[in-house]
Amino acid sequence: MKADTPIFEASHVSLRFGGVRALTDVSFSIDKGELFSIIGPNGAGKTSMVNCVSGRYSPTEGRILFKGRDVTRMTPNHRAEIGIGRTFQNLALFGHMTVLDNIMVGRHHLMRNNFLSGALYWFTGARTEELAHRREIEEIIDFLDIQHVRKSIAGTLSYGLRKRVELARAMALKPDLILLDEPMAGMNLEEKEDMARYIVDLNEEYGMTVVMIEHDMGVVMDISHRIMVLDFGKKIAEGDPEEVLANAHVRRAYLGEADDVVMDEDDEAAAVEAKTGKVA
Ligand SMILES: Nc1ncnc2c1ncn2[C@@H]1O[C@H](COP(=O)(O)OP(=O)(O)OP(=O)(O)O)[C@@H](O)[C@H]1O
């Protein structure tokens, strides 16, 4: 990858579900080290976009590039292997397993050796590998302040702590790009503040590029370097927090403010579609 190649690029991405247009011709790019947020009203296409990045959905049209490589048709597992990690809007932890085991699950693909393979374990370097692996996991556990619950069963923890464990699992994959789907959802103010700090630190200290969907505008404006705004599946604005806040399209989409932006025919059609689920 050339030094100036963006770590991620979406080029003219459209996504349809039958007659519903979830995304229409969305293009954007993210530089290595950015903390990039995607915002927009309900149904704007944020989750659809993130799913196109993670590989859960394949765009109907357009291309997805990661580190300069075309990954448009690559499976989510393969994308995870090359450095795209994610958390989910709804928690996806194994509730009956311990915190530690949940985090280890995230790491399996990184391990060259199967460390359960008996005698080979001692002679193949698997043991050294496992020790290094454990050390890194413990570092992440310390980083997210979850030492005190490492042996607890995940399903018994508070919601805020479970969100943190889920973040630990995604971080354990050592992704270059981490997708955070509503990391503050359902949290109280204190939990939100903690989570915001962890996200800034994982971006700055671990050097992970972050793509975040979040409904809490205070947090988004506070920690994002750049923000893309979607409305009815289209990109309506992109820029730093100040630019986005000052943008007339955004004010209308969020606050219902009248402005001098006139909807074109496609916008009207998308609006009808979003309300009725039918292509106009
Ligand atoms: N699997 C699906 N099948 C059919 N339609 C879908 C599917 N996923 C999303 N959509 C539709 O695509 C549009 C965009 O949805 P999406 O979930 O991406 O929006 P969002 O911005 O993430 O919304 P929210 O903030 O409510 O989570 C909506 O009209 C939605 O109903």
UniProtKB/TrEMBL annotation:
GO cellular component, one term: plasma membrane
Molecular-function GO terms, alphabetical: ATP binding; ATP hydrolysis activity
Keywords: ATP-binding, Nucleotide-binding, Transport
Highest taxon of source: Bacteria
KW Repressor (keyword) present: no
All copies of domain ABC transporter, residue ranges: 8-257
Stated name of the protein: Branched-chain amino acid ABC transporter ATP-binding protein
Species of provenance: Skermanella stibiiresistens SB22
